[in-house]
Design a protein that fits this description.
Distance between the termini: 14 Å
CATH class of the largest domain: Alpha Beta
Strand order of the largest sheet: 3-2-1-4-5-6-7
Helix content: 40-55%
Order of helices and strands: EHEEHEHEHEHEHEHEEHEHEHEHHH
Structural class: alpha/beta
CATH topology of the largest domain: Rossmann fold
Largest sheet: 7 strands, parallel
Shape: globular
CATH architecture of the largest domain: 3-Layer(aba) Sandwich
CATH superfamily of the largest domain: Glycogen Phosphorylase B
Number of domains: 2
């Protein structure tokens, strides 16, 4: 089976899925057309056996020719933002599977209802299937007119081998002495809720003068405006395989996003054995979070609720936090790259 991904912003976790799929299924061949890397996430990709084409070197005509010459069996397209990608899918619709990769949650907004109304002309005449991360995205796909049999879930999958490896490497070290440090990993942009988090943490220190610290990994347009505090440490961007020392020395993961369609980092740090502090607007909560069992949730944008979540964590005993770590790790393993490969190779007209 030969598969072509028409991708916009390729993540390290998606590339890992592709690489693992090729290892799992020796008859599978994967080709990727991708947009340039974004400045905030300059991943250092090693494509190994995956053939990659740069989007800027192709137009509609050359993409159609690429599918034909490569004898592609299925096309997977990340959303509908790239109009020429979409045109290619329309051209091959009903000839081979054309799969819409969709991570938007169904919210019933005016814009989404317009998309639902126009879907027969704009979406369903171009895509035979939809592949989504979770339930809310599956609901959106259904609203767009895809039947349940044409919707597959669990598209976003973390590199659980890597992060579960971190869990097993540092499990006993943390059980002896738990690092009292929160960890944030993500872009430094406002809708990630970084200022809510930083301000709440500063208030926590004013209240308790606790030994807890907040470590932050990432880059973005707000990096130069970051809040500086003796107990807030900023690392900049790290590659996934550079997290060893950070994971060894932190213990609770926080993602305060105002809106996160999914949030692969939730599965990553669940696999690494972290209790979770998540805003109520994060899609991945549905699979990797159980309130009180492996973390706490708060209203997105609420500094007071984030502060209260910090308070809950620092009030727990080390044993309670270690129990949460183990629960997170178990929840993370529900979705893996083997299942992803099986889904990828299952698309049929």
């Amino acid at each position: 089976m030969k598969v072509l991904f028409l991708y916009t912003e390729l993540g390290a976790y998606t590339l890992n899925c592709m690489q693992e799929a090729i290892k799992y299924n020796s008859k599978l061949s994967i080709m990727v057309v991708r947009w340039p890397l974004v400045e905030e996430a300059p991943f250092d990709f090693d494509f190994e056996d995956i053939k990659v084409h740069e989007r800027k070197k192709h137009n509609f005509k050359s993409l159609v020719q690429l599918v034909k010459e490569s004898k592609i069996d299925a096309i997977l397209c990340s959303g509908w933002v790239d109009k020429e990608y979409v045109k290619v899918c329309k051209f091959y619709k009903d000839k081979i599977p054309t799969v819409l990769l969709l991570d938007n949650q169904w919210e019933g907004s005016f814009k989404q209802n317009i998309a639902k109304f126009l879907s027969p002309l704009l979406i369903r005449n171009k895509f035979s299937h939809a592949w989504v991360p979770g339930q809310l995205q599956a609901k959106f796909a259904k609203q767009l007119g895809f039947s349940s049999s044409k919707i597959k879930k669990e598209f976003y999958v973390a590199d659980t081998k890597l992060f579960d490896g971190y869990y097993n490497e540092f499990k006993y070290i943390k059980e002896k002495k738990l690092p009292k440090r929160f960890l944030y990993v993500g872009r430094y942009i406002k809708h990630k809720g970084i200022y809510d988090m930083w301000n709440a943490f500063v208030k926590l220190q004013e209240e308790y003068d606790s030994e807890w610290e907040l470590w932050c990994v990432g880059s973005g347009e707000e990096f130069e405006n970051r809040i500086k505090h003796p107990k807030i440490k900023h690392f900049g961007f790290l590659q996934p395989n550079q997290f060893s020392e950070v994971i060894k020395n932190t213990s609770v993961y926080i993602l305060p996003s105002h809106f996160e369609p999914w949030g692969v980092s939730v599965q990553e740090f669940s696999a690494a054995g972290y209790p979770l502090l998540l805003s109520n607007r994060i899609g991945a909560k549905e699979r990797f979070f159980i309130k009180g069992k492996n973390g706490f949730s708060f209203q997105a944008g609420s500094q007071n609720e984030i502060l209260n979540s910090f308070r809950k964590i620092i009030s727990l005993s080390e044993k309670e936090l270690i129990d949460m770590q183990n629960q997170s790790n178990q929840l993370s393993l529900q979705i893996n790259t083997n299942k992803w490969t099986q889904t990828l190779t299952s698309f049929k007209l």
